[in-house]
């Protein structure tokens, strides 16, 4: 696995684990849409689990070193909530629950905390 893949995998794992493999907006239990079994510890391996994605609250291109830190990540169900958050980022309008400020609030983080974490991670690489 390349270093870039390792960074991305650690971002996903850290985000999902912190959020206990649940969408932070709608609360649905799920599993990583890209595979893996990290969800089993939280929910077993039931078929009712929805696919989850680790969403970058602040876009990667606006963050130091891509913002691949849990402080900039939030677990969202892939089909519904993730699309609403992406739409909010693209348009700046929509349901405020999907705004970066609200998503940071849900995970007790902020853009500033995410930048500091990204810079600290990069210095340890």
Give me the side-by-side strand order of the main sheet.
1-2-3
**N-to-C span:** 16 Å
Tell me the overall shape.
globular
The arrangement of helices and strands along the chain is HEHEEHHH
Number of strands: 3
Strand content: 5-15%
Low-confidence stretches: none
C-alpha-based Rg, rounded: 14 Å
Separate helix tally: 5
Kindly name the structural category.
alpha+beta
**The biggest beta sheet, please?**
3 strands, mixed
- Average pLDDT number: 93
Helical proportion, percent range:
40-55%
What would you note in describing this structure?
By secondary structure, this protein is α+β, with helices and mostly antiparallel strands. It contains 5 helices and 3 strands. The chain has helices spanning about 5-20, 40-45, 80-90, 100-105, 110-125, and strands spanning about 30, 50-55, 75. The chain has a 3-stranded mixed sheet with strand order 1-2-3. It is globular and about 35 Å long. It starts with a helix and ends with a helix. About 35% of the residues are buried.
Keywords:
3 strands, three-stranded mixed sheet, 41% helix, alpha+beta
Quick overview of this protein structure:
The protein is an alpha+beta fold. The protein has helices spanning 3-18, 40-43, 81-91, 100-106, 111-123; strands spanning 30-32, 50-56, 73-77.
């Amino acid at each position: 696995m390349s270093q870039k893949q390792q960074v991305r995998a650690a971002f996903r794992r850290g985000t999902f684990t912190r959020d206990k493999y649940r969408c932070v907006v709608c609360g649905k239990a799920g599993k990583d849409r890209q595979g893996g079994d990290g969800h089993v510890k939280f929910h077993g391996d039931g078929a009712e689990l929805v696919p989850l994605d680790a969403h970058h609250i602040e876009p990667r291109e606006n963050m130091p070193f891509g913002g691949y830190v849990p402080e900039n990540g939030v677990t969202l169900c892939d089909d519904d909530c993730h699309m609403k958050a992406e739409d909010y980022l693209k348009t700046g309008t929509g349901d405020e629950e999907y705004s970066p400020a609200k998503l940071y609030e849900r995970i007790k983080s902020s853009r500033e905390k995410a930048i500091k974490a990204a810079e600290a991670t990069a210095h340890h690489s």
